[in-house]
Amino acid sequence: MNQTLHLAQALLPDGFADDVTLTIADGVITRIEAGVAATPDAERLPGLALPGMPNLHSHAFQRGMAGLSERRGASDDSFWTWREVMYRFLDRLDPDDVQAIAAQAFVEMLEGGFTALAEFHYLHHDKDGRAYVDIAAMAGAVAAAAQETGLGLTLLPVFYRFGNFGGTPSVHGQRRFINERDAYLSLIEASAAAIRPLPDARLGLAPHSLRAVALDDLDWLACLRPDGPLHIHVAEQMREVEDSLRITGRRPVELLMEHTTLDRRWCLIHATHLTEAERDGIARSGAVAGLCPITESSLGDGIFDGVRYRAAGGAFGIGSDSNIQIDAGAELRQLEYSQRLRDRGRALMADAGASTGAALWQAACVGGAQACGRAIGRLAPGCRADLVTLAADHPALLGKAGEIALDSAIFAANALPLRDVFVGGRRVVAEGRHLGREPVKTRFAATIRKLLG
């Protein structure tokens, strides 16, 4: 299928351009021309067009528990007490529930500027911890939600064996995650079949964390799919760092770098607590730092050293993680503001004289595309035609264009002022609303009422 889009103004790899025509074939951009009038067959898109943002880290089912963990407990609240709330919530979920919750989350992602997702999928088994007859029933639910909503998908089946460093046995709340190697191989095969009907879907792998796998599992996993992305949670919490030092004698990222070769396939999720050597080592390796600033703030993780990491040439992207708020602009704003609070400066994630919004958007698109293992994140020939447009008549954007408009969309709008969203050349959002929003919302509402009743 061939189509032509004419963009009033668009962010291309080398900056903003006016009157941009995209020629698209089978969902892929084949040609770009700037400074040309619209042809009669072109669909005209007003406003500011941007490459769609990849979401490099999500646990879709957690959208269903958003808001349930804000009551302070009797002792100090932390990530670890939040985790217990999460375990109790997922105890109730079946594949139909996961599909309904994921579809709602994916609609909100598309309405929030995300056009692709790397889903870090660790909820595998039935409520008693036994595998479903179809071991990838839960993965199939995620894939079905992506197909229904039109979100691009990289599925990351998670390998999870232990409860903590050193092979500590898992706890009851983790029973739905656990697989040994043979079962995980079956899960990968079934997951690949589950995503096959989706256009341009990708399968990667994810050791959950160094707490949850053996060190010799890392290279075993890397060899299973030699060209696929590899994601891992690492150094999110200080307790994790302290446990790693106590049990292994090494910090988590130090341990990871000693036992596998980091390269462009790897995405290190959070990587919050780093020494200078660890930080610069990740940057040199070509791996992506997977940052989830809203969730990291919610859970009290800490602040990633984005300024020094960026100066070292490090690649990064953003993810919605726990999905308590789903908005690409809000994640970028939170990332920049966290750096300002720590370093007591302004516009810290951009070069001198440059637009902070444009620097953040472009860097996160490039890093997110790498982490997803797909040709996305740029308006360029050979890339999927994933793009969003901003509404030029939004109060935050009035009278503005180019970099100033993008800065205003991220830092002066309550939410990203989306107008249209295309994924693989297919329109999925019009006037800021997903085209399939209502039936998804209705099913989600029924599911949540059942779960919380």
TrEMBL record:
Originating species: Bosea vaviloviae
Gene Ontology molecular function: deaminase activity; metal ion binding
Keywords: Hydrolase, Metal-binding, Zinc
Sequence ranges assigned to domain Formimidoylglutamate deiminase N-terminal in this UniProt record: 5-44
Assigned GO CC terms: cytosol
Pfam families per the UniProt record, alphabetical: Amidohydro_1 (PF01979), HutF_N (PF22429)
Record protein name field: Formimidoylglutamate deiminase
Matching NCBIfam families: hutF, PRK09229.1-2, PRK09229.1-5
Amidohydrolase-related domain sequence ranges: 49-428
